[in-house]
Here is the input.
Amino acid sequence: MAEPNATIAGVSLVTLAVAVFGPQAGPYAVIMLGSLGGGLWALSSATLTSRAEGAWMMLRCVITAIVLTAAIAQTVGPMFNYPVTESYAVVSFAIGMLGNKWLEIIESIKQRIQNAITNGGKP
Amino acid sequence: MITMQHWVWELFCMALFYCSFCRAVHITPAAHLDIKVANFLMGIVTMLGMVAPLYGWRPDPIVFLFVFSMLLMQSVTSRSWRNGIPADFETVPRLFNRRQSDKSCS
Here is the structure.
């Protein structure tokens, strides 16, 4: 008897990952995949001299995504009426794409806070 | 059921992802956008290929041949990338040597 080509079409990646890897590891598998994909773009945008340096940068992207994805997804998901767990892949991809630019983002946030404190209360 | 076919498919996808990774390491901010995008897409598609069998998809012999030929093409053209991104792929020529091995022995 011929097997169907797609037995679980329409199931989200997170649901599938939970089914395959379990409820604890499933979301992290999706986060890792997403951050690896985004990290590829960050690699192309950086000037690196060796594959070891590239691998280290990818590892940093993945670790950053593992740490920050849940928190960011919980903030961003409700804003767009999107289930939080379903947005893990997109958020981790975006975090991976940022690569080495986190320092610039932190500086930018710091500057905005400083401006807000400096200009706070003044017309 | 995981078959030998699945293992070979995953191996092909991982090898292609590795090709994409190696080229991404060499690609600089001065590279043409189409080179960056093409390499990036290849990496993304190979990752999708790794995940696709989980959805019940099975590659057929023609798809195997396609991916194998892509892998072969990446392998033979890798010699152009031995000293970094080929000059034609950059918008501005590199004005500095990036690695110790690039410097002459004189």
